[in-house]
Design goal:
The protein has 237 residues and is α+β, with helices and mostly antiparallel strands. The protein contains 6 helices and 15 strands. A 7-stranded mixed sheet has the order 6-5-4-3-8-1-15. The relative contact order is 0.25.
């Protein structure tokens, strides 16, 4: 039986900073740890969201693709969904929503996931263009991002909250991806104005952190020279 109290994380956001962008986990392996999740492909190849066991990729042209089991990722989160309804919201602004979720969850010092289904106003997302070796840094690669907007869109926001204590391994606070119900729009969420819908919540008591020990570049890299927190915040915030 799958354990819904465990959040699985492959790689760290920190390893993206210096451009360690090799795909070091297959989608098949990621799905063995959960039916729900987010991530990015090798070379920051688009933005991924897994819903009900189906992995969707939003590429830099804005296309939504289904990815196969051999697709590889440098960074991803997944878990087995066991959400409970938390709030119903009506036209709530994003800042107010995050505040209300934080207060209701009372889980600032552990990991949790939030799933919001509903209608979002002025949704702004991004996806990064795939790069190839030799990879540039996260800051340079993220400059080649494409921005997508929708005035109003029905869909699912999937977010993982990480405690500040883990900032760098993950991004402290919320890391959110989106997929429209029509499967024609999505990506890493930059902003949205407001949402009307249902907020669901799932808390984790365990983080299973998996590292790419078979990847020579990762194992030999000296992270002490990298400006990890600023670069992660600039790219993922």
């Amino acid at each position: 039986m799958s354990n819904s109290n465990v959040l699985y994380q492959h790689g760290t956001l920190a390893l993206l900073v210096p451009g360690l962008l090799d795909g070091t986990l297959t989608m098949k392996d990621l799905l063995s740890h959960g039916d729900t999740g987010i991530g990015t492909g090798e070379g920051l190849d688009g933005e991924l969201i897994i819903l009900d066991g189906t992995p969707y990729q939003v590429d830099s042209k804005g296309n939504v693709n289904l990815v196969d089991s051999e697709f590889t990722l440098p960074f991803a989160n997944s878990h087995f969904a066991d959400y409970a309804e938390m709030l119903e919201v009506e036209d709530i602004k994003r800042d107010d929503l995050q505040k209300q979720i934080s207060e209701t969850a009372a889980s600032n010092n552990t990991f949790y996931s939030v799933k919001i289904t509903g209608t979002f106003k002025n949704m702004k997302t991004r996806a990064v263009q795939k790069s190839s070796q030799p990879y540039k840094s996260l800051a340079e690669t993220a400059e080649k991002q494409s921005i997508f907007t929708k005035d109003s869109v029905e869909g699912t926001l999937l977010s993982y909250y990480s405690p500040q204590l883990f900032d760098g391994a993950a991004v402290g606070g919320f890391h959110s991806h989106f997929m429209s119900d029509e499967h024609d729009f999505g990506g890493h969420i930059l902003s949205f104005e407001s949402v009307t819908g249902v907020v669901s919540f799932q808390q984790f008591d365990s983080l299973e952190q998996h590292l790419p020990t078979d990847n020579k570049d990762y194992m030999q890299h000296d992270f002490s020279q990298d400006n990890i927190l600023d670069d992660v915040h600039n790219a993922e915030g």
